[in-house]
Each structure stands twice: as structure tokens, then as C-alpha cells.
Amino acid sequence: MELVSSDIQFYFLCSLLSLFSAFIVRSIFKKPSSTPLRLPPSPPSLPIIGHLHYLRPLLHKSFHHLSSNYGPLLYLRFGSYPCLLVSSPSMAEAIFKTHDANFAARPVSPFDDGLLFGNSGFVTAPYGNYWRFMKKLCITELLSPRQIERSHTVRHQEITKFLRQLIQSADKTEVVDVSALLTKLTNNNICRMVMSTRCSEQDDEAEKIRNVVKKSFAMVGKMCLADSLGPFKKFGFWFFSKEAKEVNTTYDELLEKLLKEHEEKARNNIIGVKFDTEDNNKDLMDILLKAYHDENAEFQITRAQMKAFFVDLFLGGTGTSAETMQWAIAELINHPKIYKIARDEIESVVGTSRLVEETDIPNLKYVQAIVKETLRLHPNAPFIPRVCHEDCKINGFDIPRNIPVAVNVYSIGRDPTLWENPNEFCPERFLVPSKTETNKGQNFDFIPFGGGRRACPGKNLAYAMMNITIASIIQCIDLKVIGEGGNGAKVGMEEAISVSLTMASPIRCLPSVYFNTFDA
Ligand code: HEM
């Protein structure tokens, strides 16, 4: 089944960002409290609603407007619910570096374990032993450079399949939904990495999981709504509880089946995988099961935590990367000169007889710059939700404990004092050595993956997937938009009303083949 672009609305970032949105909605029902603290500056507010009237459906645009007009550190009040808006590299540095441990928590999930994204998840986990254990496992094993290297064959196979599909459509002069194909490609990459090829193609468990996760995301929306009912929220939760339980049971059964299969195969050593042995065929489920069965592990993870972690990976790894690639392709179609420069670079590095490979990427600086420039202009998480653990001071201002913080990634990426012509798509700016340094985490003017100890652990995998996919498309395919404007028709760059930065409409194009490596 083909996925449509709206399918990518389900993802883990929503569990991050919708939590934050839920806080804003809930704020209306909270009682006001006065404070003698020296708080950061505030824009003019209205009685009772505070700063709610500044908010528009595109929340990141509202935040951008607020920070551009009133400054890089703002104390906002939505109803009686306060929040800190952080919109400059130096203020982001205060959150991600100077006070890193103090801001390492996220707003508490209003949901319990009755929903997939409940309190067992890693993304929403409190900053404590469970989070520390999983973070270490992510860095040393699950999302380590070695594991990413191991999975490069999966990406190669999936990209080959993806290109063949585009070539077939080109032969038939058939319009394709590039957004849907990119989503499917990313989903397949992540699912195969997590559960490996042993996930049978016929039964298509990966597809079933995607569907149930999608349903559960819709449930999150409903639960947010229920949560906003203040004194009546228990009624709201009760109203949706049957549906939530059904979604949860389906997911639980599916995951349990997959886990049992992995355990069974490990016991019988059918595929050469034993949890306690080194094996290059291990997928993420094998690695996590090894930690689960290890009685001497620093932390005993539960089965529920394992299952919730897979949800985090499916959601965190798919929508984010697929949506970023959609923006990149849209920008490339709208900037044919940039497309040509990148293609020339690929030709000069790879030649004209083979498909670009991951080992070529370090030499494809311009392609890498295209991906970074896309993340600067269209960061999938336009603001990052954190919470202040203990009272502290930033820039001489008092920051009260428990206050939610939004780090304004979108505004930092478009700040005219940091970026020349900030609204223009110009990959060249990332070829300058000082901006290349940025990506080593030295500065905080480019933070699409967040920062500090809670930064995205999937960053290297995301770059690996995005760089090779974008390079392969540029090398092999030309994409023509069908619509008004004839040959020069552009892709519409409108943003969807969503907590992540998503395109409003799918990219529908007529592909034509520039270079076909599969001819031979
Ligand atoms: C373009 C792609 C991606 C973007 C833009 C992105 C962005 C982010 C951001 C902004 C955060 C919050 C960071 C913070 O609080 O400082 C995050 C967290 C996270 N991301 Fe990513 N991400 C991407 C891809 C991935 C991939 C491929 C995976 C794994 C398969 C992944 C897994 C996670 C996880 C597990 C967290 C939670 C970390 C924690 O709470 O400690 N992400 N991501």
C-alpha cells in the first residue's frame, strides 16, 4: 500500500511538540500566581489570556514573530501558564550547554501507559536512570557509527528499489507522488534496521506497525483534547479510553510477536544471532533484547519500555527524515541551477558508470550543504520543548523551576544577524569553513537536532539516509512539476498546520531519467 504524505503526520516529534501544545491549551484552566522574581522581558499581554492572542495556527511562525519583535529571551504567559521562549545562539547555549543538566527534561506527558506514547517512552522519559541507560545504549550500540555502517546495505537496497520505481514511472510518463515515495523509503529503511529483513515481506509487519502507530498518533490528538477539558478531563479520557485500549492492544500484540520471533531465533541460533555473541546481522531488536535479558545490566528495562522505544524509533526516524527530504527536493526543483551544480559535483566525484555510494558522501560537500541548508530553513522540529528542573539565572534573569522552555530553532535559522539573506535557499553558505564547524556542535546557530545531552541520537543516521537519497535522486532523475507555469512550474512551499514543519501539499512530479545505472 502506498503511503500518502498525510501519513507522515504520525511521528515522535508530535509526542514532543504536541505535549508542549497541550500545555498551552491547558494553561487556560490554571489559576494565576504572582511572583516577585526578576523574570525575562515579556511582550505586552492581555488580562487573563496573557499572550495567547499572539498565537496563530502555525505556532513556529507566531514564536518567530514574537522573538523578532521582542527579543531572544522572552517570558510568555498563555492564560496563567508560563513558558520561556529562547531564540538566539547564546541563549540556546545557556540551555544546551551552561545549564544542560538543569534543562535535560521534557514537559511531563499527560498520558499514562494506556497509550503508546505514555510514560514508558524514551523521548518523553524523565531525565533519570532509564533515560541514561537507553541514551548510552543508543550511542554505543543502537545508533552508533558501527551500527549505521552495518546497515548501509539496507539503505542501498531500498534506494535502488526507490530509483527503479521512479525510472519505471518515467518510462510510462507517469506522474509520481515524490513525497509518498520518500516516506515509504524512509519507513522501509528504519523498519528493516529495527527488525531486519526477517520481517516477512508478505505479512508486512512493518506496514501493520506503521498503521497502528498512525492510529495511535490520532489518539494523541484526542487525548490532548481531553486533557484540555480541565475539570472534565477524566470524562474526556473515559470517552476515548476504549479506542486507546484497542490501539494499544494491537500494537502490543504485534510487537510481542516480533520480539518472540527474535527471541526464538536467537535461542535456536537459526540465523547465527545469539544475544551474547558478536554478529554483524544483529538488528536493533536483537541488541535491545540482549540488554533486556542481561541480568547484570546497569538498568533492567521492562518489556513495555522496549516496545515504547520502538515507537520512538519509528516515529523519530521516519517522519523527520522523510519530511526534510521532501523540502530538499522541493527546493532543488525550484532552484535548477543548484540542482545542476550538485549533479556536476556528483559526476566529478563518482564518474558516469556507477551509482553514487555512501563512501562518496565525504567528497560531496555541495550535496551535504544542500541537506544542511534544508534543515536550516525547514527544521522538522521548529521548536524544542524542555523543562527547567531547578531555579536558575540566565543573562541575569530568574528562571523559575518547572517552567516549560521552547528553544526556537526556526527563528535561529532565519536570524538576519546570523545568516545573510536568511530566507533564501543558498547551500553555498555551508561551504564556508566557519559554518562547517557549526555542525560539530561548537556553535548554537544551527540546531535542527537540538543540543546538549538530550540532543537527537539519530542525527548521524538521519544524515546518512538523507545525503545518499538526495545524491542518488540528483544523479539519476530529473523532476518536472505538473501544473501552471509549464516547464518552469514551481513546487508550492506552503507549510501545513502541524506541530512539525511539514509541506502543506505532496510533491507531484513527472520524472525523467538522466542516468540509468540499471540498464546494463
Ligand atoms: C531530519 C531528521 C531528524 C531531525 C530533524 C530530528 C530532530 C530531533 C530533535 C530536535 C530532537 C530533540 C532534541 C533536543 O531536545 O535537544 C530529537 C530527539 C530525538 N530523536 Fe531525532 N531527528 C531526526 C532523525 C532521527 C532519527 C533518524 C532517529 C532514530 C531512528 C531519531 C531519534 C530521536 C530520539 C530517540 C530522540 C529523543 C532523544 C532524547 O529525548 O533524549 N531522530 N530529534
Protein model, in words:
The protein is of the alpha+beta class. The protein has one domain (5-513): Cytochrome p450 (Orthogonal Bundle). It is built from 16 helices and nine strands. The protein has helices at 12-26, 59-70, 89-98, 129-142, 145-150, 152-171, 178-195, 205-227, 233-268, 284-293, 303-334, 336-350, 365-377, 409-413, 433-438, 459-476; strands at 73-78, 81-86, 176-177, 384-387, 392-394, 397-399, 404-407, 477-481, 508-513. It has a four-stranded mixed β-sheet. Strands 3-9-8 form a three-stranded antiparallel β-sheet. Helix 11 (303-334) crosses helix 13 (365-377). The two termini are 30 Å apart. The structure holds protoporphyrin IX containing FE. Protoporphyrin IX containing FE (HEM) binds at residues 122-123, 135, 190, 312-313, 316-317, 320-321, 324, 380-381, 384, 448-451, 454-458, 461-462.
Structural class category: alpha+beta
**H/I helix tally:** 16
Largest sheet: 4 strands, mixed
Reported CATH architecture: Orthogonal Bundle
Helix content class: 40-55%
CATH class: Mainly Alpha
CATH topology: Cytochrome p450
User: Cα-atom Rg, whole angstroms?
Assistant: 23 Å
* Strand runs, count: 9
The global form is: globular
* Low-confidence runs of at least 5 consecutive residues: 1-14
Number of domains: 1
- Overall mean confidence score, pLDDT: 85
Separation of the first and last Cα atoms: 30 Å
List the secondary-structure elements in sequence, H or E: HHEEHHHHEHHHHHHHEEEEHHHEE
CATH superfamily: Cytochrome P450
Strand line-up of the largest beta sheet: 1-2-7-4
Bound molecules: protoporphyrin IX containing FE
Strand portion, in percent?
A: 5-15%
